[in-house]
Amino acid sequence: EKARDSLIFVLPRYAWQMRYLKAKLKGFYNVVVATKPVHSPSLLKKTTLFIGSGGTMTCEAALLGVPALSFYPKEPFHVERFLMELGLLKRVRSHEIPEVTVSALSEIDELRTKQLELSRKLWSMMEDPLPKVVEVIESLCSRA
Length: 144
Known about the structure:
Blueprint: H1 2-5, E1 8-10, H2 15-24, E2 31-33, H3 40-45, E3 50-52, H4 56-63, E4 68-70, H5 78-85, E5 90-91, H6 97-106, H7 108-125, H8 130-143
């Protein structure tokens, strides 16, 4: 089964979460709980499926073409809602995560192909913000 063959990398936000997860998941050979900061683009490049709580990395994964599930318990924030409308992000309730994860992994090749296609389409419509940032900084500096 793909889920059992997968490496599961858990990235807790807080030290207490790290300690709790390391204790709870001890003995699972395919589970790694991060104990130090991680360079997220490098991690996401190797990620098959991202499960997060709707934060920055969840949105980043979706935008980079990684199938992403969000279990953020409150109303989705603007960026998350936008990504859901485009089909780049799927919202799940925390109790649905095991079932939805296994389902997603069973069709991961098709899901990943669709995700990459959607993210590339979105990226092609976006403008590079760098020229605008430079323009604003130049206008602010010329006033000083």
